[in-house]
Design a protein that fits this description.
Blueprint (H helix, E strand, L loop, with lengths): L2 H41 L5 H13 L3 H11 L9 H27 L2 H9 L4 H31 L11 H12 L2 H35 L2
Helix pairs in contact: 1-2, 1-4, 1-7, 1-8, 2-4, 3-4, 4-6, 5-6, 6-8, 7-8
């Protein structure tokens, strides 16, 4: 393994890291927003929106992100809807992540004992206050492990962005391998940089889960 070559590649990977993080984190934040609203539509079984939300979840959970990106980047321009690669990446990650987040949050909402809702209503809260102050905070707390798993999954899925010419980590590694045939060095750096992204998320998720577990148990 040529360490000197790896040092020369380093600035390219750092640039790719920031692009991957920028698109990945924006997509994850937006997927959480989409997930919360979709979960509420499903939880309250709102007419029409419930059915549409169910169809959306099934569609995006059962098709690969790569196919979704190809549709956004190559098919939509055929009907006059044009987006740059970065926008397609964010939108694709948002739609995919929103479907997974929605199911995580919905299952957590259903885990909250109905007596808590009844008690809050009996105390004079309206339904919006019950949801925002009683039910949803507990549901988010319960769903933290699955949300963290979804975040890690979505960050790993950014590796397919290279298919639409986004210069992310995977694109950089493939480009350098194609140009200089330094496969081991390029892939070693790719692994290292993905670990730099994913290990802190994993550790933070474990820490948050433990803290919330202690809080729920009263310790």
């Amino acid at each position: 393994m040529d360490i000197q070559i790896m040092k020369e590649y380093l600035p390219l990977y750092i640039d790719a890291l920031w692009l991957t993080l920028k698109i990945g984190l924006l997509g994850i934040v937006l997927s959480l927003v989409v997930g919360v609203f979709t979960a509420l539509f499903r939880f309250y079984k709102i007419p029409v929106l419930d059915k549409l939300s169910g169809a959306y979840i099934e569609l995006f959970r059962n098709t690969p992100l790569l196919v979704q990106l190809f549709f956004l980047y190559f098919a939509l321009p055929r009907i006059g809807i044009k987006m740059d690669a970065a926008t397609c990446g964010v939108l694709g990650l948002t739609l995919l992540g929103g479907a997974y987040m929605a199911e995580s949050i919905r299952s957590s909402l259903e885990a909250i004992d109905k007596i808590q809702t009844d008690s809050a209503l009996a105390l004079g809260m309206n339904r919006r206050q019950v949801m925002t102050k009683v039910v949803l905070p507990q549901a988010i707390s319960i769903s933290i492990p699955s949300i963290v798993a979804n975040v890690i999954f979505l960050l790993k899925e950014t590796s397919v962005f290279s298919a639409i010419s986004l210069m992310d980590l995977m694109f950089t590694a493939k480009d350098l391998i194609g140009l200089y045939y330094k496969t081991v060095e390029a892939l070693a750096l790719l692994v290292i940089f993905y670990l730099i992204i994913l290990l802190p998320v994993s550790f933070l998720g474990d820490y948050t889960e433990r803290r919330l577990s202690y809080a729920r148990s009263g310790n």
